[in-house]
Design goal:
Length: 102
């Protein structure tokens, strides 16, 4: 019986791994900071989302007019909410944008 015990211990020792304590250093999670986007980028994104193409934006010079007109917070929701007021400031912009903002 003793030789069976020796054989068993030898096999177990060869095939098993001994638990080792290892020091795992965790790197700090990087803080994701959203870049502040320009009013031009936000306005173009909002216009694209509602279907207003670059051709209409170029023909009405709407991007430059909007940049000069808008003085609110730089986020997509506020830019979207301000479009109704913006189109009232210019007749050409109003005519071209009216169909998209119903």
């Amino acid at each position: 019986m003793n030789w069976l015990s020796i054989l068993w211990n030898w096999l177990v020792r060869k095939t098993s791994t001994s638990p080792k304590l290892s020091l795992i250093e965790e790197e700090p999670t990087p803080c994701v900071v959203e870049e502040e986007r320009s009013i031009e980028e936000l306005f173009l994104e909002v216009c694209t989302d509602i279907g207003i193409g670059i051709k209409i934006l170029d023909s009405t010079n709407a991007v430059e007019k909007y940049e000069n007109w808008y003085a609110g917070p730089l986020n997509k929701e506020d830019v979207m909410n301000s479009l109704q007021e913006f189109i009232k400031t210019d007749g050409v912009v109003n005519a071209k944008f009216q169909g998209f903002l119903k």
